[in-house]
Write a structure and sequence with these properties.
Strand order of the largest sheet: 2-11-15-13-12-16
Distance between the termini: 35 Å
Largest sheet: 6 strands, antiparallel, barrel
Number of strands: 21
C-alpha cells in the first residue's frame, strides 16, 4: 500500500516510524535502567557537634566621652591610640553661653537645691508626726479597754471606731513619711540635672575617667560641641572613646532556644571575622543568659557571650564574627554522612538498597551531629551500606516517560 503513496507521504511515514522507534527505545531505557547511587558504609568514628552563629564584638570597657560644656573646643591634648591615665585632661572647651544664660542656669540650680532641702525638712516633720501618732495608738491599744492583763488583745472591744480612728491616723502618718522619700529622690534628681545644665554654661576641662587608650577622636581645636540630653544622646557622637585595654574581647551572639540549651560556660569556640581573612581565633563561652529579651517572628533567642583568648588591636568593637561553639564531642560512635539521613514519617531514616535493587527506607534514631557526620544510635549496624546521593531522582519507577 505504501508504494501507492506520494513521495511526500512516504517521507512523513518514514519520519513518524523513526520517531516511534526512538520513543519506544527511550521508554524501554526509562523502565530498565537502574538508578545510580553513591554509597557509604556506617562506621565507628569520632564526632564533634557544633553550634554556629554570627555575632558582633561588644568589648566592655569602652567609655564614650562627651563635652560637659556647650561651646568651642579651645585645646585638644590627646591623639588617637594614645595611652592616658585617669584624671588626665583630654580637651578644653570655652563656653558660648551668654551672661544671662549663665545666671538663669545658676538660679534654676539654686532653686532646685532649696526645694531639696525643704523636702528633707518636711520629711523630719512627717517623721515626728508619725512617732506621735504611734504613741497615741500604742497607749490606747495597751489600755485596759482593749488589752487583757496578760497582754492579749480584746478583739471584740477593738471593733469600735474609737480604736480604729487612732490606728488609721498612725498608718496615714507612716504612709506620708514614706511617700516623702519619693519627693526627696525627685528633688535630688532635679538638683543633679540643673547642676549639669549650669556646668554646661561654664568653661570646662574634660578629663579621663579611667586609664585607657584614646579611640575615635572626633574633635579638634575650633570645633563646636554641645552637651547631649537624654533625648539626643543616641544620635550624638562622642568627642572620643576611652578604651580600657585590660578588658577582655567579648562577642555577643543571639542563639535560638534549641541550640541555647546545648551551650554552656567554658565550651571551646573558634571565631572568624569578615574583616580579618585567613585567621581563626580561639576562645570560650563566658556566659549564657537564662532569660530572653529577643523574640522575632515567634523565634525565641538567648544572648551568649564569647570571650576571646587574645586581645588584639585589629579586633575592633562592632566587627562581625562567625562563631562555632563545640557543644559535644564523642569518640567511637556509629556514624554516617549527614546527607544519608532523611526525614521519614515524622522521624529520620537512611536509604539502603534492597535485594531487588529498589530503595528502602530504614528508620533510625540519631544523636549528635557535626563535621558532616551524624551519630546513629539505633536502626543500622556498622558496615551497612547507606545511600549518600542518588544520581537520578527515581526512588520509585514512574508510570510515564516524562
Amino acid at each position: 500500500m505504501i508504494r501507492k503513496f506520494s513521495r511526500k507521504k512516504k517521507i512523513i511515514v518514514v519520519v513518524l516510524s523513526l520517531l516511534l522507534i526512538v520513543a519506544g527505545f527511550l521508554i524501554w531505557r526509562h523502565f530498565t535502567k537502574a538508578p545510580k547511587y553513591t554509597l557509604a558504609a556506617a562506621k565507628f568514628d569520632s564526632i564533634v557537634e557544633t553550634v554556629s552563629e554570627t555575632g558582633n564584638v561588644t568589648t566592655a570597657g569602652a567609655i564614650p566621652i562627651y563635652s560637659t560644656t556647650t561651646g568651642m573646643v579651645e585645646e585638644v591634648f590627646v591623639k588617637n591610640d594614645e595611652d592616658v591615665l585617669e584624671n588626665d585632661i583630654l580637651f578644653k572647651v570655652k563656653s558660648t553661653a551668654t551672661k544671662l544664660e549663665q545666671d538663669t542656669a545658676l538660679s534654676a540650680y539654686q532653686t532646685s537645691k532649696n526645694t531639696l532641702e525643704a523636702a528633707k525638712s518636711t520629711q523630719l516633720s512627717l517623721q515626728a508626726d508619725m512617732f506621735g501618732q504611734w504613741d497615741i495608738f500604742k497607749e490606747l491599744a495597751e489600755s485596759d479597754d482593749f488589752e487583757t492583763e496578760a497582754g492579749t488583745p480584746k478583739y471584740n472591744n477593738r471593733a469600735v471606731p474609737e480604736f480604729h480612728i487612732p490606728e488609721k491616723d498612725w498608718l496615714a502618718a507612716e504612709a506620708n513619711y514614706k511617700n516623702q522619700e519619693k519627693v526627696i529622690n525627685q528633688a535630688a534628681t532635679k538638683v543633679s540635672a540643673d547642676w549639669r545644665a549650669y556646668q554646661a554654661t561654664q568653661d570646662s576641662q574634660v578629663s579621663a575617667h579611667i586609664d585607657g587608650q584614646i579611640k575615635n577622636l572626633s574633635v579638634a581645636k575650633g570645633d563646636l560641641v554641645s552637651v547631649p540630653t537624654a533625648l539626643t544622646l543616641a544620635n550624638t557622637p562622642p568627642a572620643l572613646v576611652l578604651v580600657n585595654n585590660d578588658v577582655d574581647t567579648i562577642i555577643k551572639l543571639n542563639i535560638n532556644e534549641t541550640d541555647a540549651n546545648k551551650v554552656r560556660s567554658g565550651q571551646s569556640v573558634k571565631v572568624e571575622f569578615d574583616a580579618i581573612s585567613g585567621k581563626i581565633f580561639s576562645g570560650k563561652v563566658d556566659r549564657v543568659d537564662s532569660l530572653t529579651f529577643s523574640v522575632s517572628q515567634n523565634v525565641v533567642k538567648f544572648a551568649v557571650y564569647i570571650k576571646l583568648d587574645d586581645k588584639l588591636d585589629l579586633i575592633k568593637r562592632g566587627m562581625t564574627a562567625d562563631v562555632d561553639i563545640t557543644v559535644a564531642s564523642k569518640d567511637n560512635v556509629l556514624t554516617v554522612p549527614s546527607s544519608a539521613v532523611k526525614p521519614f514519617k515524622g522521624g529520620k531514616a537512611v536509604r539502603v538498597i534492597a535485594d531487588n535493587g529498589e530503595i528502602e527506607f530504614i528508620p533510625v534514631e540519631v544523636g549528635s551531629k557535626g563535621g558532616g557526620k551524624v551519630e546513629i544510635i539505633s536502626g543500622i549496624k556498622a558496615g551497612d551500606q547507606v545511600v549518600v546521593t542518588l544520581a537520578n531522582d527515581q526512588v520509585e519507577r514512574s508510570s510515564g516517560l516524562f
